[in-house]
Specification:
The protein is of the alpha/beta class. It folds into 2 domains: 13-245, Aspartate Aminotransferase, domain 2; 248-349, Aspartate Aminotransferase, domain 1. It has helices at residues 13-26, 34-38, 41-54, 65-76, 91-100, 112-120, 144-154, 176-179, 209-218, 220-223, 230-245, 248-266, 289-301, 331-349; strands at 58-62, 82-86, 103-107, 127-132, 157-161, 189-193, 203-207, 281-285, 308-309, 320-324. It is globular, with a radius of gyration of 20 Å.
C-alpha cells in the first residue's frame, strides 16, 4: 500500500502493449529535446487525448511532474508579480514560487477566508494562485469552487496540481474539475502527472494555446531536457485510453478507499480527517517517528508494504503511514492491511 499506481494499471496488458509497440516503432529514446528531434506523433496523440479528457485547448508534456511545476510557475510570474499558495503545497510548487522571484505568500491549509484577505490586498503586477487538487500527505481535496470564484473576483489566475487527483476522483476520474462539476474554464492552468494513476512517467500542463506556446518556447525544463521516451508515452497513452473507456476504474479506487478507511477506523486506527478523504490516500497518524518506523518494519515482515512519512514531508508532530489504495486491491487485501497495521501499532507501542 505504498504505490502511486492508484488504478492498478502499472503492468496492465494494454500498457505493456502500448509501450512495446511504441518502442518497436520509435525506439527506446527520442534522441533530442521536444522542440527539435524529440517531438513525434506519440506526443501529439497524448497531448490531444489529455486536452479532450480535461476540456482544454492545448497541452505540453514535461519529463517529470516536478519540472512541470517549477517551469510553469517561473513562466507565469516573476519580479513585480505575486504568487499565493496553500501552506501544504507540494515541494515542487514551493520551489517554482521561490525561483520565480515573485512575491511569495501562503495561506493556512484550505483556509479560503485567509486567501480572500490576501487577494483583497491588491498590488501592481500579475497574481497567480497555486494549490494542489488533492494533498499527497493529507489525502484531502482543496475547496476548488471557492478558490476559483475568488480568483475570478480578484483577477487572479488559478493553477491546480492534479498529481494525486487526475485519474482518481470525479465520476470519470478526470480530477477536481470532474469531482466538483466545474465548467472547463474554472481552472486556468491544469497540471498533472503521468507517474501516478497513469502508471508511467512525466508531467503535463493543459491550458489555452497562448500558455502552451509560451511554455514550449520559453520553459528551460522543456527546451533543454530530453523528450519523454516513446515507450513511456505509449504506456501513458494506453492507460489514459483505458480510463476513458472504463471510468469505473476510478470509482473502484474511490470505493476501495472508503472501505479501507472504514476498516482502519473499526480497528481504532487514527485516520487523518476521514470525513474529507476523496482520492486514494489514507494517512494513519503515528505517535512518534520511531514508532512509525517500527510499525513499518513489522508490517513489511508480515507481507504488507507500507511507507512511513516524517518531517520535513509532514509537520514534526504528525508522522504517519501514508497508505495508497489501488482499484485492484481485493476486499481480503484491504482487510489484511488494516488488521496488520493495527496489530503492528499495538506491538510497536507495547
Amino acid at each position: 500500500m505504498g504505490s502511486y499506481s492508484y488504478l492498478g494499471l502499472s503492468n496492465s496488458k494494454a500498457m505493456l502493449d502500448g509501450a512495446f509497440e511504441s518502442a518497436r516503432k520509435f525506439g527506446a529514446g527520442t534522441f533530442g529535446v521536444p522542440i527539435l528531434a524529440g517531438y513525434n506523433t506519440l506526443y501529439v496523440s497524448l497531448e490531444q487525448t489529455l486536452c479532450s479528457a480535461l476540456h482544454a485547448d492545448a497541452a505540453c508534456l514535461f519529463s517529470s511532474g516536478y519540472i512541470t511545476n517549477v517551469e510553469t510557475i517561473k513562466l507565469l510570474v516573476g519580479p513585480g508579480d505575486r504568487v499565493i499558495g496553500d501552506a501544504l503545497n507540494h515541494t515542487s510548487i514551493v520551489e517554482g514560487c521561490i525561483q520565480s522571484r515573485a512575491t511569495f505568500l501562503t495561506f493556512p491549509h484550505n483556509d479560503v477566508e485567509r486567501l480572500r484577505q490576501l487577494l483583497t490586498n491588491s498590488r501592481p503586477g500579475r497574481t497567480l494562485v497555486v494549490v494542489d487538487g488533492v494533498y499527497s500527505m493529507e489525502g484531502d481535496v482543496a475547496p476548488i469552487p471557492e478558490i476559483a470564484e475568488l480568483c475570478r473576483q480578484y483577477g487572479a489566475k488559478l493553477m491546480v496540481d492534479e498529481a494525486h487527483s487526475f485519474g482518481v476522483i470525479g465520476q470519470s476520474g478526470m480530477g477536481v474539475q470532474d469531482h466538483f462539476s466545474l465548467p472547463p474554464d474554472a481552472i486556468d492552468i491544469k497540471m498533472g502527472t503521468l507517474s501516478k494513476a497513469m502508471g508511467a512517467q512525466g508531467g503535463f500542463i493543459c491550458g489555452n494555446h497562448n500558455l502552451v506556446t509560451a511554455l514550449k518556447h520559453n520553459a528551460k525544463g522543456y527546451l533543454f531536457s530530453g523528450a519523454i521516451p516513446p515507450p513511456v508515452l505509449g504506456a501513458a497513452l494506453a492507460n489514459l485510453q483505458t480510463l476513458i473507456q472504463n471510468p469505473d476504474l476510478a470509482r473502484q479506487a474511490q470505493r476501495n478507499r472508503n472501505r479501507f478507511a472504514a476498516l482502519c477506523l473499526d480497528h481504532g486506527l487514527p485516520v487523518l480527517h476521514p470525513e474529507n478523504l476523496v482520492a486514494a490516500i489514507v494517512p494513519i497518524l503515528m505517535p512518534t517517528n520511531e514508532i512509525a518506523y517500527r510499525v513499518t518494519k513489522i508490517c513489511r515482515e508480515r507481507g504488507l508494504f507500507v511507507v512511513p512519512v516524517i518531517f520535513p514531508a509532514v509537520p514534526k508532530d504528525a508522522p504517519r503511514l501514508r497508505c495508497c489504495v489501488m482499484a485492484n486491491h481485493s476486499e481480503s487485501e484491504l482487510e489484511m492491511a488494516a488488521a496488520t497495521i493495527a496489530a503492528a501499532l499495538r506491538l510497536a507501542t507495547s
